[in-house]
Design brief:
The structure is a homodimer. By secondary structure, chain A is of the alpha+beta class. Helices cover 42% and strands 17% of the residues of chain A. Chain A contains eight helices and six strands; from the N terminus they run H-H-H-H-E-E-H-H-E-E-E-E-H-H. In chain A, the strands form two sheets. A two-stranded antiparallel ribbon of chain A has the order 1-2. Chain A has a two-stranded antiparallel ribbon with strand order 3-4. In chain A, a hairpin with a 4-residue loop joins strand 3 and strand 4 (121-122). At the A-B interface, helix 1, helix 2, helix 5, helix 6 and strand 3 of A face helix 1, helix 2, helix 5, helix 6 and strand 3 of B.
């Protein structure tokens, strides 16, 4: 059975999740952030089946997060390097790590501690508003359709209700 | 076939992913952040099968991100409210949204724009270091085993190499 595809939903969470495909993919990225570049090394660190790993790496290359690069010509050997969009995914992994450290580590405490070389201190991830730099908290962000929202969906009553579009027109 | 369980890995990314289970779960949470509380409303907004939704809600209640609450007694009806840990997951969803807006929206632009009520401006998520408040960038964080890292794993040569443990002792 084909799983539901979220790629065409007008939602960046759904699209991101569609791209990742399954839970192995963030772990492959995590290894890349640890500095892993070669197939055998990904395989050893994750204990993942070779065909599964090959598929996840191909997916990440196709999506532009990793770049396949020849590092040896005789015989031909490849390594996988993070691209700009791949490196930019670090924030998502860091936010996930901090949440897991806070809520899933229990009394044992966090399994891994991150030392932020830029400032020289141990640090966790904090998700803030790009404008005011204050923590971005649930319930403080109101969504509205952006330029990439399909125009025809905006005619649907459920979508209008979701974004409170008719209330906004009333107020103006 | 049972999928690989990541729950016992000493890694908060793996644990968080194990808890979420599949890509529907973050979308259920996204709806909760939009203010959705009732089964039928989750079902309508996501177009998800009722048994799949029931399983995801149960998982989120068991994991402590949602709380099942009676809002009507005759007949008994429940709603699902975000707990403190559930609300705290907002940062992860927000970071994912911003990444998707940046890298997957294409020329059409972001499907949704978020207005940060706290500061009164449209904003995106930025992931910063909790200590210095500077953006947390790939390659700037060095991991080391924390209190929750299994002691016996620290004897393994591959683990010691991963964290550069022997290099650290040499330097001291």
């Amino acid at each position: 059975m084909k799983r539901t595809s979220f790629a065409n939903w007008p939602c960046s969470v759904a699209r991101t999740m569609d791209l990742l495909g399954d839970w192995w993919t963030p772990l492959v990225l995590r290894e890349a952030f640890y500095g892993v570049r070669r197939f055998d090394e990904f395989q050893r660190e994750l204990g993942i089946a070779r065909n599964t790993l090959a598929e996840r790496l191909r997916r990440l290359v196709d999506a532009g997060l990793l770049e396949k690069h020849v590092y040896e010509t005789v015989p031909v050997r490849h390594e996988y390097l993070l691209t700009e969009s791949g490196r930019d995914f670090y924030g998502v992994i860091a936010a996930m790590t901090t949440w897991g450290d806070r809520w899933l580590a229990g009394e044992a405490g966090p399994p891994i501690i991150g030392h932020h070389e830029t400032c020289g201190h141990d640090g966790q991830a904090e998700v803030v508003c790009s404008h005011c730099k204050q923590p971005l908290e649930a319930g403080t962000v109101t969504p509205r359709p952006g330029p990439g929202y399909p125009r025809k969906l905006l005619l649907r009553p459920d979508v209008r209700r979701r974004f409170g579009l008719d209330e906004i027109s009333d107020e103006r």
